[in-house]
Amino acid sequence: MSAQILDGKALAQHFEEEMRRRVDALKAKADGRTPILATLLVGADPASATYVKMKGNACRRVGMDSRAIELPEDTTTEQLLAQIEELNNNPDVHGILLQHPVPEQIDERRCFDAISLEKDVDGVTCLGFGRMAMGEPAYGCATPKGIMRILEHYQIPLEGKHAVVVGRSAILGKPMALMLLGANATVTICHSRTQNLPELVKQADIVVGAVGRPEFIKADWIKDGAVVVDAGFHPEKCGDIELAPLADRVAAYTPVPGGVGPMTINTLIFQTLEAGEKAFGV
Ligand code: NAP
Q1: Pocket of ligand 1, candidates 172, 236, 240: which has the most ligand atoms within 8 Å of its Cβ, to mutate?
Q2: How do residues 9-23 score in pLDDT, each as one tens digit?
Q3: Residue 189 near ligand 1, beta carbon < 6 Å
Q4: Is the minimum distance from the CB of 277 to ligand 1 under 6 angstroms?
């Protein structure tokens, strides 16, 4: 059996074309106005600066705009909160992205939670998370929501399937598990204190690797015919799952690179477009 490749890169390109058409239609109805994503970068971490730039570029590729706000390394929580408040109140801004991580003197959770729900297009607020968990409308956290969009596009059956999510971070493992639960999967969440991890992974119809360690999840833990989603990305150009031996015995998998990664930014700008459409009443 040759596994289906869940090609996030191609899918992101396909969705960008769709979004370009939606943005054009929106502009025509909204007197030329376009959705705007405000990006907030605190400090000078080069990786974070690159991510923020990529997000701004992705907005422009589909005809939307971005507004980059850069704050110094010694910014306080109060100063960042004031900046977020200004963006919340700015009718020209439709989505707000606060780039993680912020310098350690800042209370990141307080700042995330200060983003108003209708502009939380990266899905980072507790309120948005809670609403998503309850099945109420809210923008999803970008990486797990991007994974859900991949699974939906490739029509991967989730209902009644056993999904094992390895990792429980606020931005990935936890929202992933709740999104899969919302799609009627039976979900097991594993973490650093889990016992018998290989045995649990062996039971999975769907495995999500969100551990942050290169090829930590071994190929021989994964059963034949499973669907494998690898959210990890490491400098060695591998993910959190040992993927190479799986290509001819699982049903489908996300490659690394080119799987989950491209759909994260795509989901952020997709949700910004949705926020813009709502704000313009279209
Ligand atoms: P994280 O915050 O470091 O969380 C890692 C999770 O893995 C934690 O819940 C941790 O458990 C669990 N874990 C660590 N060691 C374990 C072990 N030995 N056995 C079982 N579980 C273990 O990482 P993250 O931010 O969720 O990111 C996870 C991966 O996804 C990383 O490779 C990251 O690069 C990638 N990622 C990709 C994107 C993208 O856009 N493609 C976005 C975000 C993250 P505890 O909770 O018990 O500590």
Answers
A1: 172
A2: 999 999 999 999 999
A3: no
A4: no
Q: Is residue 267 part of a domain?
A: no
Annotated binding site for NADP(+): 167-169
What does the block give as tokens for 197? 């991890």
Assessment of whether the complete model's pTM goes beyond 0.85: yes
Mean pLDDT confidence for 107-116: 98
Over residues 38-55, the pLDDT tens digits come to 999 999 999 999 999 999
Residues 101 and 166 in one domain: no
In whole angstroms, give the CA distance from residue 48 to residue 42.
Answer: 9
Tally of structural domains, the chain: 2
Domain containing 89 equals 31-128
- 205 lies in the same domain as 149: yes
- Same domain, yes or no: 120 and 162: no
Please check whether residue 8 lies inside any domain of the structure. Answer: no
Task: Compute CA distances 37 → 55, 116, 233, whole Å.
Answer: 9, 13, 25
Q: The tokens of 98 are what?
A: 């606060």
